[in-house]
Amino acid sequence: MIKEELAVSNDQQNSEAREKVSAFIIAKNEDDQIADCIASLKFCDEVLVIDSFSDDKTVEIAKQSGAQVYVHKWEGYKEQKAYALSLLKYDWTVNLDADERVSNELRENILHVLRTEYENKKNPQAGTEEIIGYFINRVVYYLGRWWRKGGWYPEYRLRFFRKSKVVWGGINPHEKPIPQGKTERIEGEILHYTYDDMNDQLRRLVNYSLISAKEEFSRDKKVTVVKLLLSPFIRAFKFYVTKKGYREGMAGLIVAILEGYYTFIKYAQVWECELNSKQQGKHGEGS
């Protein structure tokens, strides 16, 4: 796998006059990814790993890599990240998943923001609206390429922010921090080393679809024949045409179809939840 060089002079960057910054990663069984993820966050003043009882060497490697490790029972993506926020020492926060890295350009721009924030504290500018977070473009590496032509690109996510100015919201597994103030975009990328191969992608899509289905069912979402038939097509069309996945050639077509497959099995599982609920209700009436 091709990886961008992430060498950095940590002593110099962590001793300069700037705002302090925390980073956190939620993880389970990520012993093949966690060290590189932590290495890309060495410029941060603390790095926390919230582990969900891994049965591989994730915890051991994370500690060896200099991170503070907390073991916490898995309650959901949103709940796990909200818990992580409560543990952080500093207000400015960077959030990565274990299969992500901070690029060199992004690291330097984050440090520039932190230096500027430090200076602004000493010399506040009257009437200037505070920026409480920055959206970062995440670029995916999959099927032997960086996806910078279409499909998953561009994909901006709020990953650098003041923890005191966000609440963790969204719907599992697609949770997100909800900003309570002004945000901007920042140059540089989060490097996302996503699925290992198609088998890995299919396995994860099934897992994510079940989580999403349970969330949809809990919110009393209903599935119709029309929705089950059309939603997968719309999802695939959006990825391949609207988001220009066709620019990635055969890889773009394959992923578009898999995006539609994800949508189909999600709504199929919502329907199954409805069916199980009705059957349980009938059994209850007959008891």
Describe the fold and architecture.
The chain has 287 residues and is α/β, with parallel strands linked by helices. It contains eight helices and eleven strands. The chain has helices at 10-15, 34-39, 58-64, 77-87, 104-122, 198-218, 225-242, 249-286, and strands spanning 21-27, 46-51, 68-71, 92-97, 100-102, 131-142, 145-146, 156-162, 166-171, 174-179, 182-193. Strands 1, 2, 3, 4, 5, 6, 7, 8 and 11 form a nine-stranded mixed β-sheet that branches. It is globular and about 65 Å long.
What is the arithmetic mean of pLDDT?
91
Tally the helices: 8
CATH class of the largest domain: Alpha Beta
The SSE string, one letter per element, is HEHEHEHEEHEEEEEEHHH
| CATH topology (level 3) name of the largest domain | Spore Coat Polysaccharide Biosynthesis Protein SpsA, Chain A
Overall number of domains: 2
Question: CATH H level of the largest domain: which superfamily?
Answer: Spore Coat Polysaccharide Biosynthesis Protein SpsA, Chain A
The share of residues in helices is 40-55%
Poorly predicted regions are 1-9
CATH architectural grouping of the largest domain: Alpha-Beta Complex
Q: Report the sheet-strand fraction.
A: 15-25%
For the record, give the distance between the C-alpha atoms at the N and C termini, rounded to a whole number. Answer: 58 Å
Shape: globular
- Major sheet summary line: 9 strands, mixed
Radius of gyration: 21 Å
- Determine the structural class based on helices, strands and strand pairing: alpha/beta
By DSSP, the count of extended strands is 11
